[in-house]
């Protein structure tokens, strides 16, 4: 039997619960060639260099298998801006950012912190009277989805429709589910359905504006103009989906890690303001996005003694880079007290995660609330069952047991409310 490459072993489902020893093996050769011809890069320094290298493209149309055999005319909607290069990428990102955070709208995320706390509190209230729950289905999934729907102006009752679309898109980026052409066609089909959905929604918001991002975007008339209807349709769909599995996984991975490090869990119960440091360390130690498969070299690029030929796909293994011992001491220890913590959890360079302030805020709010209110929390199984996707990696379910659900903050004492006030001021200082 032929020996499978380390990268191929990482893709195998059996290694989903603990891919880290394989990442360590991968890092011994910073640049390797995978069986499908792509170049896999796994060390921190080399990944950072490529994330900032203008010779590396995120545009799918530069992929060697594009257009795919049998393709008819390319589909109507423009690509998501995550799959574009400058200058188009930068223009769209700037136009969207005006309504999402700094520098134009710096308070957008922090101003909804209380609402976010209420949403997560309500989900935890639903567990009252029980001693068991699945933290993925009952909190980690519905919480960020409710928040992003409110922010964008998407009706909550449409959730079953876009959950199915999100699942399809996420499967389409999973390299184990088919070749590039098959996955791209699947992705285009969902993209078209999601875009049509947002087209109708944009028209409704133009006629009846609300206090949400879609209403602001359709009314936009800033110095750089506005997004075309197609750009708006496509990129609202991206914002809705990009924060789905990722934020679910930071909360689920976070609870799993805290339950494996009970002394950190106890500290977080007493000091909710620690959550900013804990979330940052989670983004390094158990990140939701393990690798990026979307890059293509536009030219020959020398990396750590290997030449990546122009026209070849590159895989950046972010999760291996964030545990590179040449970058961070004792990388396999979960240590929220690290004096420095530069990780690749949100990528880097011009595609650095657009939703990072929101994702940080959600995780910083949800984790302390869960550990404080679910008393004597423990895991039912370790490891829990994982989702198949090696790229967006996280538990499919996180079954836990607890003795009781403690009351919500409003009914707690002054000391507790002061701790929460402190946590919200840390949040304001750290999410952006
Ligand atoms: C913990 C949660 C999250 C993680 C770990 C995460 C991670 C990432 C990573 C690694 C990238 C870089 C992709 C690349 O370079 O190709 C990225 C980009 C992006 N993320 Fe996130 N993300 C999270 C949450 C969110 C949320 C909540 C949103 C939406 C509001 C979002 C929207 C985006 C968008 C639009 C991009 C593309 C940015 C660009 O191309 O300029 N993300 N994210």
Structure description:
This protein is of the alpha+beta class. 47% of the residues lie in helices and 8% in strands. A 5-stranded mixed beta sheet has the order 1-2-8-5-3, covered by helices on one side. It has a 3-stranded antiparallel beta sheet with strand order 4-11-10. It is globular. Bound molecules: protoporphyrin IX containing FE. The site of protoporphyrin IX containing FE has 26 residues, from helix 11, helix 12, strand 5 and helix 16.
Number of helices: 17
Helix content: 40-55%
What structural class results from the helix and strand content? alpha+beta
Cα-atom radius of gyration: 22 Å
What oligomeric state best describes the polypeptide chains here?
single chain
Count of strand segments? 12
H/E series: HHEEHEHHEHHHHHHHHHEEEEHHEEEEH
Ions, cofactors and other bound molecules:
protoporphyrin IX containing FE
Shape: globular
Estimate what percentage of residues fall within beta strands: 5-15%
Low-confidence stretches: none
Distance between the termini: 50 Å
What strand line-up does the widest sheet have?
1-2-8-5-3
Main beta-sheet annotation: 5 strands, mixed
Provide the residue-averaged pLDDT: 90
């Amino acid at each position: 039997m032929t020996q499978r490459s380390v990268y191929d072993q990482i893709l195998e489902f059996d290694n989903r619960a603990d891919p880290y020893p394989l990442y360590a093996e991968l890092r011994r050769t910073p640049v390797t060639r995978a069986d499908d011809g792509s170049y896999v890069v796994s060390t921190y320094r080399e990944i950072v260099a490529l994330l900032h290298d203008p010779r590396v493209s995120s545009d799918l149309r530069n992929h060697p298998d594009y257009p795919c055999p049998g393709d008819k005319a390319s589909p109507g909607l423009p690509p998501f801006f995550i799959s574009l290069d400058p200058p188009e990428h930068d223009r769209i990102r700037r136009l969207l950012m005006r309504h999402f955070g700094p520098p134009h709208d710096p308070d957008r995320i922090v101003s909804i912190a209380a609402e976010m706390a209420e949403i997560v509190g309500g989900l935890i209230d639903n567990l009252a009277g029980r001693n068991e729950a699945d933290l993925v289905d009952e909190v980690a999934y519905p919480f960020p989805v409710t928040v992003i729907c409110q922010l964008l102006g998407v009706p909550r009752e449409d959730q079953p429709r876009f959950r199915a679309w999100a699942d399809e898109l996420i499967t389409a980026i999973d390299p184990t589910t088919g070749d590039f052409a098959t996955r791209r066609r699947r992705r285009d089909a969902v993209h078209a359905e999601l875009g049509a959905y947002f087209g109708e929604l944009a028209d409704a918001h133009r006629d009846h504006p609300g206090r949400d991002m879609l209403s602001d975007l359709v009314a936009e008339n800033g110095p750089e103009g506005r997004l075309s209807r197609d750009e708006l349709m496509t990129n609202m769909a991206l914002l809705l989906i990009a924060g789905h599995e990722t934020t679910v996984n930071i909360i689920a991975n976070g609870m799993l890690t805290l339950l494996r490090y009970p002394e950190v869990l106890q500290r977080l119960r007493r000091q909710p303001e620690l959550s900013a440091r804990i979330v940052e360390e989670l983004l390094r130690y158990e990140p939701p996005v393990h690798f990026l498969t979307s890059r293509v070299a536009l030219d020959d690029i020398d990396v750590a003694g290997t030449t990546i030929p122009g026209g070849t796909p590159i895989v950046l293994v972010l999760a291996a880079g964030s545990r590179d011992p040449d970058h961070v001491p004792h990388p396999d220890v979960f240590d929220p007290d690290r004096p420095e913590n530069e990780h690749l959890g949100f990528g880097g360079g011009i595609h650095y995660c657009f939703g990072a302030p929101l994702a940080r805020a959600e995780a910083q709010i949800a984790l302390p609330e869960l550990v404080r209110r679910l008393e004597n929390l423990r895991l039912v199984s370790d490891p829990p069952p994982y989702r198949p996707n090696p790229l967006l990696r996280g538990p499919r379910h996180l079954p836990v047991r607890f003795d009781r659900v403690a009351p919500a903050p409003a009914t707690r004492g002054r000391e507790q409310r002061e701790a929460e006030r402190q946590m919200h001021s840390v949040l304001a200082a750290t999410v952006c």
